[in-house]
Hints:
Layout: H1 3-10, H2 24-35, E1 47-51, H3 54-68, E2 82-89, H4 95-112, E3 116-120, H5 123-126, H6 130-138, E4 145-154
Antiparallel strand pairs: 1-2, 2-4, 3-4
Helix pairs in contact: 2-4
Amino acid sequence: MNATIKDMIERRSIRKFKSDAVPQALIDEVIEAGLYAASGKGKQSPIIVAVTNPDLRAQLSRDNCRIGGWKEGFDPFYGAPVILVVLAPKEVHTAVEDGSLVLGNLMLAGHALGLGTIWINRAKEEFEEPAYQELLEKLGIMGDYIGVGHCALGYVDGSLPKPPVRRANRVYYVS
């Protein structure tokens, strides 16, 4: 089987990560794969904010937990030490689609490199809050961005989950 297709079939969402730091070279390789995602009209408009700072990572976790309505102390990023936040300009009509393709590439690249990943939502709500708008300004990111999602990234703590059986009647051919 082709290695790329094998990775697509075997990648799973991970809900338990080791606290071990991920080497910057691996983070950069995952990010590069994300930057090569397809985008509407080839605009390459999504951006990635790579969070490895423990304090900011903890703040993202607390806010994501609050927005999601979970009990205080729950970590919606499951202990992953790296959070890759994908945002896209609101004025781009394919912002969510383009950002989603970036997230897909990030997750597949992480798996291909021996890392675990999971897509976590609520970036939209986070980046509507003033604190995260200020963060973008501090980073020199100007414009009106929508949070598409987070890719939590790290080393898997345990084994990969088994895939569920694929549902039937999901493909229809018109010849």
